[in-house]
Design goal:
208 residues; alpha+beta; Pnp Oxidase, Chain A; 5 helices; 27% helix; 34% strand; elongated
Length: 208
């Protein structure tokens, strides 16, 4: 590997112009070393009043168009994204001492894409999408259990559970992606990709 092309960065950053290519390599490495959910990512949103909120979600797909996760569209994050279609993600892999930060614009995935993923989920998860009024207050846990049982009666054929209209996927189309590697004495290594107005990516180093 030609270190001059890497501006002195560790070899794990490679020398690629496409951040999605580098993301795929890092994710595959994380799958081998992370004990649980290497696709877990902190998702930050903000509502119309610019009040931020962050929570962990699971990345379910990614390609050159962006990073996809699924949720109840009437949940807090769903309402935030409808009001303010901008978001940030942060992957942190302690086993690799790496993180990736992503910021950009969100949009709903196509219905056929949401249908395909929904139908790949197990029966209990598909029922849960109907039964849970995500982020709404519960009077008791029994209220949720009762709702699950009611929807199991309604959709007792496990092969015929339609996707709720209030449940779908969001695609985060990145404007910038930063790759971070832990360094000795907190002298970390940071490589940032930024998308220009023509859709091309440029690379820059950041101070730790």
């Amino acid at each position: 590997m030609n270190q001059k092309n890497l501006l002195g960065l560790n070899n794990c950053f490679l020398d690629v112009d496409d951040p999605f290519h580098l993301f795929r390599i890092w994710m595959e490495e994380a799958k081998k070393s992370e004990p649980n959910d290497p696709n877990a990512v902190a998702l930050a949103t903000s509502n119309k009043n610019d009040f931020p909120s962050v929570r962990m979600v699971l990345l379910k797909d990614f390609n050159k168009n962006g990073f996809v996760f699924y949720t109840n569209l009437n949940s807090q994050k769903g309402n935030d994204l409808k009001e303010n279609p901008k978001a940030s993600m942060c992957f942190h892999w302690k086993s690799l001492l790496r993180q990736i930060r992503i910021s950009g614009l969100v949009s709903l995935v196509a219905d056929e894409i949401a249908d395909k993923y929904y139908n790949s989920r197990n029966y209990e998860s598909r029922i849960g999408a109907w039964a849970s009024k995500q982020s709404k207050e519960l009077r008791s846990r029994d209220e949720l259990i009762s709702s699950i049982e009611e929807y199991k009666k309604k959709y007792n054929d496990q092969n015929k559970v339609p996707r709720p209209s209030h449940w779908s996927g969001w695609n985060l189309s990145p404007l910038n992606i930063e790759f971070w590697l832990d360094g000795d004495s907190r002298i970390h290594e940071r490589l940032k990709y930024t998308k220009d107005s023509d859709g091309n990516w440029t690379k820059s180093l950041l101070s730790p």
